[in-house]
Structure formats: C-alpha cells, structure tokens
Write a structure and sequence with these properties.
The structure is a homodimer.
Chain A (H helix, E strand, L loop, with lengths): L24 H9 L9 E12 L2 E8 L9 E2 L2 E3 L6 H13 L5 E8 L10 E9 L2 H6 L3 E6 L11 E3 L8 H6 L9 H16 L12 E2 L1 H12 L5 H10 L3 E7 L9 E5 L6
Chain A binds a DNA duplex through helix 7.
DNA sequence: AAAATAGTGTCTATGAGACACTATAGT
DNA sequence: ACTATAGTGTCTCATAGACACTATTTT
C-alpha cells in the first residue's frame, strides 16, 4: 500500500511524431477522404435555465411557445448549436439573443437525450444554468415564473413552475397555485438545475452571482434561503461568509431602510493560497 | 421577506388540451411537415472514463488507436450514439461492447464540444464515468494505465496517463515516468472525471462502486486515499463511514492475511429518513 | 515472543447553533 | 422613546484529528 501526497510537477509529454502520428501526411490523407456524415445524427440544442431570486423566491425565465410542438406551453430559452461555436459560446449567444443578457455566469448543467423527449425528432439538448441579479433579470424580455420545489434538500426530481400574477405574495397562494404547463422535459431540466444550484451553494461562491455588485449580508442570506427553500442560521451564516474570504467590506452602507442600515460588501475571488 | 420550509405536496398539473395543444390534430399536422434536418448538425459521441483502484492507485481503461486520427495514441472507449437509444443506454452499450462490462455504475460527466476537438469534423462527445472493482477491471480487454494528477484537491485540469509496466511499483518511478500520448482532448476529460470523483467521494456513496461486494474498512480507506491522492485520518474515517449508515457488518472476516483479519462489510443503500 | 494491523477509548481543537446583548437607523 | 434590524460576544454541542492502548492473527 502506497501513501502519497499531491503530485508536485507534471512531467512534459514527449512528442516524437512518427510517420503516421498526429499531423503526419498519412493522417492528412486519411482525413481528406473521411466521411463523418455517413452516419445518422441527432440535432444538438442548447437550453438555458436562467435563475434569479426576487423577494426571497427563486424565479426562472421562460417564454410561451407560439409554434408547435407544445404550443402555448412555457419553455426554456434555447436554440440549436451552430457548427462553428463551442457549447458555452452557443449558450452565451442564445442568452444574448433571447434574453438580452451578456456577461452573466453560465455553466453547463447536463445533457438530455431521451429518444422521445422532442416530438420533432431526435434532439439532444445540452442544458446550461445562468445566474443573474434581480434587476437585470427583470429587464429581460422573458416571462418570470416562480419555481416551486416539491422536494427538500438535494433529493432531485421535477419542479413546478407557478404564476401567482400581481397578487401580493402569500405563502398559501404560492403553495396552492396551479402549476403552469411546461413544454418538453423542461420541468425535469429546471429540477436538475435547482438540485445542482443547491449542491454548489455551500461549496462554491455561486450565490454572489445572484446579487448586484454590492450587497448586504442579509441579502446574501436571503439568496441562500431562497435557493435552499429553507431557513439558515443567521449567526453561523455570517461567520461562515466572512471567514470564506470571498467578501470584502466596502465601508458603504445601505440607504433608505427604516432600520439600522447594514454594511455593503463586495464579492472578491479568493486569493490563491 | 418570506421564510419557508420544504414544500409539502406537489400540485397536479391541470391538463386541458386545447385544439392546438399537445397531441392535437393541428400539432400532428405540423410535425408531419417539419424538417429537422434542414439544419447542419454535429455528430454526437459517447466516451466513457472507466476507473478502478488497484494497489492503492487510480487506474483508467484505455485502448491504443489503430486508425487515424491520432493513430497510436491512447483513447477512451466510446463511439457514436444511435438514434434509438438514450445517452445512458449508449454508454452502457459501448461499455459492454468495448470492455465487456455490464451492471456497473455509470454516470454522465460533461459534454465536450469545442469546434476543433476532433480533426474528423464537428463531434460533440457526452463523457461518462464508470466505476468498477479491480477484479472486473482487470478482466476487461482494455489497456490499464495509471492516472497521475498534477493538481491537488478539486483544482481541476488535465491529468497524465502513465505506464510503468510490470516493474515493481515505486513512487519515484511513478513520479518520473513519461506521460503517454493521449488522443484528442481525452486528457482533459479524464481530468474532469477525477475532479468529479473527488468531489462526490465525501458526499455520496460512490466509493463502494470501486470495491467488490464485501470489503474491509481498510480497503475502503485505500479507495478514498487513491482517489484523493492524499492520506486520510484512519480514526475519523472509520467513525464517519460507520456512522453514514451505508455499511453493514457481515460477521465474516478476511482470510489469508498475515495480520489480524479485519471484519468484512457490505454496502447498503441508506434507508429513507 | 515478535510483528503487523484491527479496533476502542479519550482528549482536544474547531465550527455550528443558540442566545443574550449592544448599536443605529427611521418614525 | 419605540421598533426593527445590524452586528458582537459567549456558551454549548457535535465532529474531526491525534494519540494511547488493547485485540488478534501469522511467523
């Protein structure tokens, strides 16, 4: 049995190009006659789950489908990948086109490829998650819908998307509102996005992506509670966040509140080591 | 600000099919004339990173490419997705075909789609991770290679794949061995697989997948140390594992060892609640 | 008996939860 | 002065790390 510590330095890969190796004339000739399109292929789409937190509740951006299939149902913004762009680039392009959002946090989530997931034919979709603060989210030309999670923790599963309109927010109204009809398998995709977000919240500085540049600790706590769908301990939350090294006090304080104004903090990438 | 506990029960989705809704004649007519293949599409492949731990070291299953491109380099087992199967099914099919492995833990990892990642053309690959115990791994008709991770923790990045042959294992030989030439972006894929595995090890019962049905706590600790590339505290490891509820004592003990034989445990799925 | 590892008991340091207390804005 | 929230200090409890000690096998 061998015990070892983290490896120190990577050994360089020795590249002795043989006559048939990478970049050789032999390989060039092979590639020139290779027919990749000899096989039947699926279409590749990219869908984006855009989340924000407004008034202590997780919301997702959707649009109402005006065309078949699933006409009239709510769907995630997305589209087909182009042949000259990476998946991340496609997600960012579609986010800019469909939601007018640029410079936002985008991360690949999961690839959905069940044969029957889209009646138009075989479409594999690479789902992404985007996080944005409430102000920018509200300005996007997409419908805002509340996410209702029928499971706790990181159990996983589909979620409901509900619309309680302009009515003053009420817990009972939220709990009892009918779920909106969601297109394709997008309720599963949003569900997995919630699960992933919950999982990353405590271990990565992802919560800051849902806030503006300067924010109070209370706002950050609201984000965590909305994502987790549960209350968190105020004291230990403050200690953890301040000890994480991700927060930098600005010296400024919030304004216009009727109570003691809290200090504003800024998100800083933790220094290496 | 609203505080809420986990939601209790999901409200059923009300499905009133309008004349133009899901399954309607209108939709059927639309789908009949829809041409999905009007757009250019990439190919979709599935690659599998098969891991095991042998002699306290993480190993990966590879094969040597006999055809262009990247002829002679080591590559992950994989292949193209068929039009009638899901991504997970494709991974399991390819695992059975290429490695003779069935009934193993398989999980989707990440989808790689950089435009230049394969010189044959635009190929998007959905990478998967498979975990198997040492005995089944050794029986697979694939090359065994050691994984050398040039970063600690969950930093991430490419990894080296090294071959120290039949020489008695030696730390210095391992550290200084030249890295094998790996095809395409497979060194990145394996690197992300290591990162994911390390991340899941402490929070999910994934380590058991690398062991036979019955195992000692020491073997389980060896798995964790090999995956993490670091030593773990024996005492707290034992406590954590026994307290996790995933272990069930069999009453049997290991045989043929020259020291006090340890008790054998079995992996049990933790009971709900 | 010696060697080697399995397994237990206990002390300590750390971090989360709980709670009391002080501070500061608007009304 | 009152109220609501910000922010601090301290106590307790649970858990990880460390270490000493006992147990059980083969040689």
């Amino acid at each position: 049995m061998v015990k070892r510590r983290p490896h120190s330095a990577a050994t360089a890969t020795p590249l002795d190009l043989p006559a048939t190796g990478r970049g050789s004339a032999d390989e060039q000739a092979f590639l020139a006659q290779y027919r990749l399109d000899a096989f039947e292929r699926p279409s590749v789409a990219v869908d984006i789950v855009v989340f924000t937190v407004i008034d202590g509740h997780l919301e997702v951006a959707l649009y109402e489908r005006t065309e078949h299939p699933d006409q009239g149902r709510l769907a995630l913004p997305g589209g087909f990948m182009r042949m000259d762009e990476s998946l991340d680039d496609a997600a960012r392009r579609l986010l800019a086109d469909k939601a007018g959002l640029t410079d936002v946090f985008v991360e690949q989530l999961y690839t959905f490829g069940e044969p029957g997931r889209d009646p138009r034919g075989r479409i594999v979709t690479v789902a992404h998650v985007a996080l944005v603060d409430a102000a920018r989210f509200s300005a996007a030309p997409l419908l805002r819908r509340l996410v209702r999670v029928p499971w706790s923790g990181e159990t996983g599963g589909d979620v409901d998307v509900v619309d309680i309109g302009a009515a003053a927010f009420d817990d009972d109204a939220f709990d009892e509102a009918a779920a909106c009809a969601v297109a394709f398998d997008h309720a599963s995709i949003i569900g997995m996005a919630v699960k992933r977000l919950r999982g990353k919240l405590d271990y990565t500085p992802v919560g800051f992506q849902l806030l503006p540049a300067e924010f109070t600790l209370r706002q950050l706590q609201d984000i965590h509670e909305a994502v987790r769908g549960d209350v968190v301990n105020k004291d230990s939350f403050r200690r953890r966040m301040l000890a994480s090294g991700h927060l930098e006090a600005t010296g400024n304080h919030e304004r216009g509140v009727t109570w003691r104004p809290a200090e504003l903090y800024r998100f800083v990438r933790r220094s290496a080591v």
